[in-house]
């Protein structure tokens, strides 16, 4: 049973909003759309206003009669332009993407994920990486221009692999970072290095973190992870459960092989937020890790199916 597939699309990979990238440099179309555009306000903690129906949008014209500097054009939702803006403070019920991710519909999940990713990038990109000069937003927030040389820079996304290691049978390897409380486990992950393929990164990261050689690396799916600017690229791989585990780089405090039945029971307890007195707690639904674990846990029941 070397290969299995994700049973569902990762929550943050859902998006039903057209990004309308052809409008980003069309000042006339953006101005016209601004008149009835909606605005998603995001504070520096990544929180937005919510109500019982989901995200609360304001009117873009509350900022002014035309698109303002610092606003990011996200696309078109229900025939209206959608913009996002960083704000200092908001009054009302607030929640962040980690809490909301599993409750939003496909359109709003995609909008909020994109808004947080873009605003996080702008927060850290005020100066050109090429010449050090101050930079200004352009392309309705989708690039920045150096005020000295005119050099244009685009949003940065850091690729990271996340891998479910199993024994090609009934056991899966789960690990705990030093900062996590006991009983909280997940699968292994790490950032891709320069000049490295994704598959090579999988093999290297698992060897570095737990000292295990893996084989049969297979792609499963991907998910944006805007905390602050990553994309998680999911894989499965096969390892030997009899091999010694070595935690050499300090990133892993504990790792153990768990049976499929143990994982299934843990999934029934909920996630890391659960107060259940359970021997194993697993990540929440917002993470692709949860979907990968659920897919592996159900693979022998014939429930795994392609999400393509």
UniProtKB/TrEMBL annotation:
Q: What is its EC number?
A: 3.6.1.22
Q: What does it catalyze?
A: a 5'-end NAD(+)-phospho-ribonucleoside in mRNA + H2O = a 5'-end phospho-adenosine-phospho-ribonucleoside in mRNA + beta-nicotinamide D-ribonucleotide + 2 H(+)
Q: Which intervals hold domain Nudix hydrolase?
A: 155-280
Cited CDD domains = NUDIX_NADH_pyrophosphatase_Nudt13
Key word Cell membrane present: no
What is the required cofactor set for this protein? Zn(2+); Mg(2+)
Domain of life of the source: Bacteria
Gene Ontology MF terms in the entry: hydrolase activity
Q: Which NCBIfam families match?
A: PRK00241.1
Recorded family membership: Belongs to the Nudix hydrolase family. NudC subfamily.
Q: Protein name, please?
A: NAD(+) diphosphatase
Species of provenance? Rhodococcus tibetensis
UniProt lists the gene as: nudC
């Amino acid at each position: 049973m070397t290969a299995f597939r994700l049973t569902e699309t990762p929550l943050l990979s859902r998006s039903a909003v057209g990004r309308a990238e052809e409008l980003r440099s069309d000042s006339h179309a953006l101005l016209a759309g601004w008149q009835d555009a909606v605005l998603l306000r995001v504070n520096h903690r990544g929180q937005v206003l919510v109500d019982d129906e989901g995200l609360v949008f304001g009117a873009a014209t509350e900022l002014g009669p035309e698109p303002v500097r610092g606003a990011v054009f996200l696309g078109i939702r229900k025939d209206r332009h959608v913009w996002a803006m960083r704000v200092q403070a908001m009054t009302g019920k607030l929640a962040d993407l980690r809490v909301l991710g599993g409750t939003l519909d496909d359109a709003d999940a995609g909008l909020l994920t994109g808004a947080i990713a873009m605003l996080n990038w702008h927060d850290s990109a005020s100066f050109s990486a090429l010449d050090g000069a101050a930079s200004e937003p352009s392309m309705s927030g989708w690039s920045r221009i150096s005020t000295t040389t005119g050099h244009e820079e685009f949003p940065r996304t850091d690729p990271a692999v996340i891998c479910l290691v199993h024994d090609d049978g009934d056991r899966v390897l789960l690990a705990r970072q030093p900062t996590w409380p006991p009983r909280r486990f997940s699968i292994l992950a790490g950032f891709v290095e320069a000049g490295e393929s994704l598959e090579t990164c999988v093999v290297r990261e698992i060897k570095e973190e737990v000292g295990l050689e893996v084989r049969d690396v297979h792609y499963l799916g991907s998910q944006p992870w805007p905390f602050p600017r990553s994309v998680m690229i999911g894989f499965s791989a096969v390892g030997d459960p009899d091999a010694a585990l070595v935690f050499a780089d300090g990133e892993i405090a504990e790792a153990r092989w768990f049976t499929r039945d143990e994982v299934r029971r843990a999934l029934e307890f909920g996630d890391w937020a659960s107060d259940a007195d359970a021997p194993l707690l697993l990540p929440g639904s917002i993470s692709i890790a949860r979907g990968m674990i659920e897919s592996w846990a159900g693979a022998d029941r014939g429930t795994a199916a392609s999400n393509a």
